[in-house]
Every structure is written in C-alpha cells, then in structure tokens.
Amino acid sequence: MKREQWGSRTGFILAAVGSAVGLGNIWRFPYMAYENGGGAFFIPYLFAMLTAGIPFMILEFTLGHKYRSGAPKTLRALNSKFEWLGWFQVMISAIIAFYYVVVIAWAISYAYFAFTQAWGEDSNAFFFGEFLGLGDDSAPSNLGSLQWHLLLPLCLAWAATYFATYRGVKGGIEKVNKVLMPLLFAMVLLLIGRIAFLPGALDGINWLLEPDFSKIWDLKVWSAAYGQIFFTLSVGFAIMLSYASYLPEKSDINNNAFMTVLMNCGFSILAGIMIFGALGYMANVQDKALTDVVSSGVGLAFVTLPTAINLLPAPGVMGPLFFLALMFAGISSHISIAEAVTTGLMDKLGWSRPKTATVFCSVGLVVSTLFITQGGLLLLDLVDYFINNIALLGSCLLELLLVGWLCRLQDFREHANRISEFTIGGWWAICIKFVSIGMLVIILFSNIMTAFKENYGGYSNNEVTFIGWGMLTLMLVLAIIINLSSKQERKI
Ligand code: PFF
C-alpha cells in the first residue's frame, strides 16, 4: 500500500510548527529568557538555534524523507543495533503524551472558567486546593482519589488527538493544524495588541528584553539556551521523523526546516512579549516589583495569569482568549506526540491506522487518569523532570552520535541538497558532529549530576528511585527486549 502523504507543503509546515509551538513556548521560554540575561539571552539562543536547532531539524526531515518510516524502523535502517533507540524515543513520546494531555485538560476547564473568572480572588488556593484537590499528604506515591470533574476535559483533549490521528496525515492532522495555527498566531497578536497599551505593560516587556551582557560569559546560560532549543523544537524523540516520513518525493527539506524553526522561535518571542506585558501590568496595578510576580510553568499559567486576568479590562474576553491559545498550542503538539507513537507502531506491527490510533488513544486515556488524581500534579512533575532532563536529552545525544559518527553524514547532506532549493554546506556536519554533541554532553552530564546529588523537588528517596530512575530503567529494558524480539522475528 502506498504511504500516506501530506496534501500540501503549507500543511506539512503548519503541522511541524504546530508540534514545535507548544506549552513550552508560552510558559517556559519567557521565564528562561528573563532569568538568563533578558535581551542578552537572545545571543546564545539564536546561536543555539543556528548551530543545533536548524541542523537537527534538517537531519530529522532528511531521515524521515529518506527512510519513510517511524523512529524504530528508521534507526534500524541506519544501524541494525540501534532499533532500541527508536523504541526508546517512541516510549518517551508515549509518556509525554500521557501527561501533556492533562495540562491541556486543565486549559480547557480554565477557558470555561475564564468567562466568569470562576477561580475567584485567591487563584492559588483555587487551583491547587479546589481544582486539583491536592492534599497535605499528597505525593507521587500517594495519589488519592480521582478528580472526577477533570475527566470530561481529559476525554475532550484525547478526543481531539484521536480525531486527528485516526483520520491520518492529510485528512486529520493537516486539517486541524491549518485551522489551529493561524488562529493561535492571530489570538496571541490580538492579546499583545491590547495588553501593550495597559499601564506598566511596556515596563514588563522592557524587563524581558533589557540585556544583561554579564550573563553571556556564564556557561549555564548557554546550556539553558541549547536545552530550550532541543525542548522547543520537538527533535530527537521520534516526532519530526514521523512527520517527515509522510513528505512527498519532491520536498524542499532545507527550506522547510528553516521555516519551521524560525516560526517556532518567532512565536516564542511573541509569547514572551505577551506574558511579560501582562506581568508588567499586574505588577503596576498591585504596586509590586516585577520580580515578585514573575514565574513559569504551571504556576504562571494557572495561578499568576488568572490573577492578572482578574485585573484586566474585559477579563471575560481576554481570559478565554488566553486559555484558548494555550489549548490550541497544546493540542497541536499533543497530536504530534501521539502521531510519533502511532507511526512507530503502525510501521513496525503492520497494523492499520484506525486500529493503532484507537488502541493508543484508549490506553492513553486510561493511563492519563493517573495524573488527574489528587497527587497527579506531583507525579506529573516528577515524571516530566526525568523525561525532559535526562531521557529526552540522552536520546538526542545518542541519535546524533549514531548519525554523526557511525554513519556517513555526507550521504544525508547530499540527500537533502539534492531535493532542496538552497543547499547546505560543510558547516552542517560540524554543527552536528561537534557543536550539538558537545553541548548535549555538557548539559546531560550536569543534569545527571544534579539528579543524583539532590532529590528533585524534595520528593522522597523511594519516589525518586522507583518512579524516576525506575521508569528510565524500565524504558531502556523494554526497548532492548523489543529490539531483540524483532531480531528473532527477522531470523525466522
Ligand atoms: N515543543 C512542544 C513544546 O514546547 O511544548 C512540544 C513538547 C516538546 C512537549 C518537548 C513536551 C516536551 F517534552
């Protein structure tokens, strides 16, 4: 049977941008930039984008296009000893899919609450206490009871992903992204357009952009920039490989990769302006210093911003708009994460798309309910820490080592150049073989040291050992078992 294909080039680029632009751009990038030198952070960030982001994206598009399969099969084609890495990547995607969807479910609920600011005056107590039901004794190993009111939004979030992955690349994923992406950009621009005129907003934006050049000499700032680039671009864990495996024969790989990366990073800057504008306004109204209101992650989106929304003019319009934007950014990424698993399984097991999507999304829905319990947030936090700081970066590093040092990198460059409008030079191989790998080694090493030195987030020894390290070990063992069994199969 002929492999599915994207219906248009725009469709593919929007889907790739949809994958890259996610919660990370909205709640991770602005804080990261602010903390690591403000405007000066753009120097390491742009450097990381050019020397790691774009080269890695070109590589994944090339591999997907050349081998036309998901991660396990592609990595096996590169080197038969490395199929396990493909499965490891599929597992990373599966686990991220299980918890990322929960944040989308929260955003769905909050988009609804935002019409009336149902979170009230004390958004902190509302979010952690009333909404999540987090108790004093909640812990990753003490999840407590299911929060039933979160089940409906969770089902809705999975339904969106199911619809897209079931319908396939052209009929589902492409269509959804063609609607969500333009809407997302328009909504963020609209929000910026209003927020920028509020008192204090420009001071907030200034805080974000004001360069502190002394930070440029700090290695930590450079690691943060490279870490953010790998995270934000969805490279190194099966996603872009899968998407590119559906590219038609004639595809301008180099140009597509540049556009995807530039749109993603451009969106991050827009998101930064939106968030810091809102924070600046909030600090102004509350007569506080910006340092007292600035935050990131879950706290920013579900505690700080609801308070800021309370203070905005027309909160019943701006609030839903913000949470809809968060939802759209999340859903388009979640679809890509689920598709990475679906493609991997379909290509390997020979199942049909509807069957694979149905099995994965149903299992996914059941597993995700773990994260809508009273202690769900804490479990999510711990799992996310190990996946992002160790598994994901480790997988990026191994993929680059394999491609850069065990394969003929030159072949891939030629493949990309043959079908692209503009060609890439020798710098590409240097970026992959030395710069990206070097930075990954430094970041990963320091992350592993930190994880060993102190229990992340104050979780207990048992939790960190069994849930954190245990999960990583289990993933590795499972990946190797699948690899061995597929070797057996081929022998028979
Ligand atoms: N790139 C998306 C984001 O920044 O939210 C998707 C994503 C990447 C999600 C990496 C999760 C992740 F660990």
Summarize the model shown.
The protein is mainly alpha-helical and 492 residues long. The protein is built from 19 helices and no strands. The chain is globular and about 65 Å long.
Structure description:
With 492 residues, the protein is mostly helical. It contains 19 helices and no strands. The chain has helices at 9-20, 23-35, 42-67, 71-78, 83-113, 123-131, 151-195, 201-209, 219-232, 239-244, 253-286, 290-293, 297-311, 315-349, 353-368, 376-406, 409-419, 427-453, 461-491. Helix 1 (9-20) packs across helix 14, helix 4 (71-78) packs antiparallel against helix 5 and helix 7 packs across helix 11. The protein binds 4-fluoro-L-phenylalanine.
What's the order of the H and E elements?
HHHHHHHHHHHHHHHHHHH
Major beta sheet, specifics?
A: none
Structural class: mainly alpha
* Distinct helical segment count: 19
Shape: globular
Radius of gyration: 22 Å
What value does the average pLDDT take? 95
Small molecules held by this entry? 4-fluoro-L-phenylalanine
Share of helix, binned: over 70%
- Please indicate the percent range of residues in DSSP E strands (runs of 2 or more): under 5%
Oligomer: single chain
Query: How many beta-strand segments?
Result: 0
Kindly report how far apart the N and C termini lie.
24 Å
Uncertain runs: none
